[in-house]
Amino acid sequence: xxxxxxxxxxxxxxxxxxxxxxxxxxxxxxxxxxxxxxxxxxxxxxxxxxxxxxxxxxxxxxxxxxxxxxxxxxxxxxxxxxxxxxxxxxxxxxxxxxxxxxxxxxxxxxxxxxxxxxxxxxxxxxxxxxxxxxxxxxxxxxxxxxxxxxxxxxxxxxxxxxxxxxxxxxxxxxxxxxxxxxxxxxxxxxxxxxxxxxxxxxxxxxxxxxxxxxxxxxxxxxxxxxxxxxxxxxxxxxxxxxxxxxxxxxxxxxxxxxxxxxxxxxxxxxxxxxxxxxxxxxxxxxxxxxxxxxxxxxxxxxxxxxxxxxxxxxxxxxxxxxxxxxxxxxxxxxxxxxxxxxxxxxxxxxxxxxxxxxxxxxxxxxxxxxxxxxxxxxxxxxxxxxxxxxxxxxxxxxxxxxxxxxxxxxxxxxxxxxxxxxxxxxxxxxxxxxxxxxxxxxxxxxxxxxxxxxxxxxxxxxxxxxxxxxxx
Length: 472
Description:
Layout: H1 25-30, H2 38-41, E1 53-54, H3 56-59, H4 61-70, E2 77-81, E3 91-96, E4 99-105, E5 111-115, E6 131-132, E7 138-139, E8 146-147, E9 153-155, E10 174-180, E11 183-187, H5 195-199, H6 202-206, E12 216-226, H7 230-235, H8 243-246, E13 260-264, E14 268-273, H9 288-294, H10 308-324, H11 333-337, E15 339-344, E16 348-350, E17 358-366, E18 369-379, E19 392-395, H12 405-408, H13 413-421, H14 423-432, E20 437-438, H15 446-461
Parallel strand pairs: 12-19
Antiparallel strand pairs: 1-20, 2-11, 3-4, 3-6, 4-5, 5-10, 7-8, 8-9, 10-11, 12-18, 13-14, 14-15, 15-16, 16-17, 17-18
């Protein structure tokens, strides 16, 4: 069946109610032989408005400064994985803007984070991005003052010259920490909201997935500079609308316009983008055999009466189970195949999938550049110790993801390179535009609007001055 996707929405529909003709994501997933867990079937969209978003939110140095001052200073953000600091004295430095946290595991096995600055003269204990193992105490490299791993003062060389310093008030400044899904979170706010409240629907949803994130390990870790504001680059990964033009080769095997978008207040949103079901934008429908061939299989081997998606899931379950050394029998077809992306405000994306086991993080460098980090989290093999986390592979602004062999082998690198190739021109276009802002779709780009509404809440509640003026 073909649908005319060029017609405007029915004007009698409520704003945000229009959907792509044809089966919904939920309809497709309900047909799978191995039923998806309830969180995947849950739907939670609401209309969040249709006003333009000002380009100045991405290009203004004043707006960027307000974000640094009022958002990054007071929001929960993940700093590392627990497996990065498994033993006493293991540490890692997490930086965002001018803020720096030294995350360490103390002698009691507790994860702590301290402001990465010596109380004496402000010297950092370790450089940005540094990590190490086995420290017995934290020592300033400038003058040698040291602190215990729990932040208590240990030693001041030439102690006689500091009669005005009291041991119990000269400890390190401790930051709030918390853990979820194997990730360590920090917050630079002295009085943050509880992490459990901030995470919203994430713990409930991920607890019902096979192989939750805490049962996975870092198989690959990449760090790349992107030519764009952190929000602009992040937003390129919050919708599947761009698949039609940016990834046209994927239209034969993946939906685009019939992806599902959800907003779970306060800080979580999601899309579910099906794999193994063709795009409604194809000029003519694919037969089951053609779809099966497009998925990389011999079309003649598709059993009669079996859908291409279902058989593809069976074959992937067998192949990936053997490759990873795990039993993927209980994993639903949707979790196995689909691109299911949860966004946690302000900057993190978590995928519960097996074929697409991605984790993203975006951090600002300046108004025009950001850091994009990608992890692949794979299930820990059965009856085996957790593998050590992969070292960070650092890529420059002109380095393609496809240059990383392990990532290229997954088939995902080409897609990510297509995504990031857009950003330099998008940044230039925002600055050149005489139209003052971008116009978003009500449904497919709702997660972008949700991100900005959450951002505005932080800008408004932190600081005495109003945030820089923006247009909606």
